[in-house]
Write a structure and sequence with these properties.
With 462 residues, the protein is α/β, with parallel strands linked by helices. It contains 17 helices and 19 strands.
């Protein structure tokens, strides 16, 4: 055996990255819907558990203000189309939000049933039941456009914020052109959410429903700062809405971060969502995920379901500090993911240019509540390491010849007022590129609020 072949053989033995670790049947089972939908009988029984509060706290807890007791009451009387209309009037993406929203920390946490030593109403599942049933009806379109106003609005980004904004503006009779950098609309619902949460191409079904209203055109492969510019959009359109999300990924800040086997979780999840054959995805036997949010949970569970044998999620603080919900954390652990709290990466260990492990340091809080290392270290073997420590807003697309056009917030996102108005007249923004909850439902609300403000703004220009 030549020295080169021997070296490659040794490397293969040290780094266990493989394809097709599972059978076709296992892939199907592992990425099927984690929340089987309610049937008619179960939905009506669940709806009848609601006490239909007059001052319902669940409404206050919903970022989009859905009239939850009203739609549940309609389900209880078998008026499913009416229930869906109540939902979609407030949240045009109520179907995807029913699947991906942390309802356990929003509407369901606020449910008065919790104060009665009882389980909260399954609001998310009831919402899904209503919207899914509407989508299967031939008369599913609930909305009509008002007479055309002749006004044209540019929307940057076909994610939840942009789609929500576009739909609301189209209802008012305005024409909307959405500029989307990728080849499909849907944003994180299409590319960034765990595949088992939004299976069966639901994200595209929802996009199709929104577009079926009319008055909305999507131009794909159009990225702000490349094919289009904010300066030109302001010249060509009566108003502009920015909903492009966050495109930057935070770095670990340790040496040799670019070695083989170190991957961005968001990029891998996108590849998984786009893949037509999950057996073509590279999967390590020993995988480490660094982060404490929903993206970290999503990649950890999905890589485990792709056949990884050992998956460790490394988080520098305690479970109560994680942005992932308690339900998500528990779901990860019941799916074979080990969550290692109070530990942070200190050094990447490589062999032949590929990651082979991570040296970690235990952490604690000092007397002032500041995170610090204890000096005690340990090592975890790893064939793959996923960075899931948050995304950042990249402001350069909003610049003109290196000059900032928009004011940014202290956290580096686009600064807006309560109506979504930026520092530029006629330019609005919403969703993850602005401050607020990084949730699909919050992005939908941001787009809706901005659309209503844009409509008022356009009426003053007549």
């Amino acid at each position: 055996m030549s020295s080169k072949v021997a070296e490659l053989a040794a490397q293969a033995a040290e780094v266990d990255i493989a394809f097709g670790r599972l059978t076709a049947e296992e892939y199907v089972e592992n990425f099927s819907d984690i929340h089987p939908p309610l049937d008619r009988n179960k939905a009506i029984i669940e709806a009848n558990r609601c006490v239909f509060c007059h001052d319902a706290p669940c409404i206050e807890a919903c970022p989009t203000g859905i009239q939850i007791p009203i739609f549940i009451k309609k389900i209880s009387t078998d008026n499913v189309k009416g229930a869906a209309k109540t939902i979609l009037e407030a949240n045009i993406m109520g179907g995807s939000c029913a699947r991906v929203c942390p309802t356990e920390e929003l509407c369901e946490e606020a449910c008065v049933r919790n104060t009665q030593s009882d389980q909260p109403i399954k609001i998310g599942q009831l919402q899904r039941y209503a919207v899914d049933n509407l989508m299967m009806r031939p008369d599913r379109q609930l909305f009509r456009r008002k007479p055309a106003t002749g006004k044209r609005i540019a929307v940057v980004g076909a994610g939840p914020a942009g789609l929500s904004c576009a739909h609301r503006l189209s209802r008012e009779g305005h024409d909307v052109i959405i500029f989307e950098a990728k080849e499909k609309a849907g944003g994180l619902n299409e590319y960034g959410i765990a595949a088992y949460k939004v299976p069966n191409d639901f994200a595209q079904s929802e996009v199709s429903y929104i577009l079926s209203l009319g008055g909305i055109e999507i131009k794909y492969g159009q990225a702000l700062g490349k094919q289009i510019s904010l300066v030109q959009l302001r010249k060509d359109y009566d108003a502009v809405f920015l909903g492009m999300g966050m495109t930057g990924v935070n770095a670990l800040g340790i040496a040799e971060e670019e070695m083989e086997g170190i991957e961005n979780a968001v990029d891998y999840i996108e590849d998984l969502r786009k893949s037509k054959d999950l057996s073509k995805l590279p999967v390590g036997r020993r995988v480490v995920v660094i982060g404490g949010g929903n993206t970290a949970i999503d990649i950890a569970i999905q890589i485990k379901r792709l056949g990884a044998e050992y998956v460790t999620l490394l988080y520098r603080r305690g479970p109560e500090h994680m942005t992932a919900t308690e339900w998500e954390q528990e779901f990860a652990q019941t799916n074979g993911v080990m969550i290692k709290h109070w530990a942070m990466p200190k050094k990447l260990i490589g062999r032949h240019g590929h990651v082979a492990g991570i040296e970690c340091e235990y952490t604690q809080l000092d007397d002032n509540g500041k995170l610090m290392g204890t000096g005690d270290t340990f090592t975890i073997d790893a064939d793959q390491v996923f960075k899931a420590i948050g995304q950042t807003f990249v402001p350069s697309p909003c610049q003109d010849n290196g000059k900032d056009l928009l004011q940014l917030s202290k956290k580096g996102r686009i600064a807006v007022n309560d109506e979504g108005l930026t520092s530029l007249p006629g330019v609005y923004a919403g969703g993850d590129c602005t401050e607020g909850q990084d949730l699909t439902v919050a992005a939908v609300e941001g787009g809706k609020v901005a659309a209503e403000a844009i409509d008022r703004y356009l009426k003053t220009k007549r």
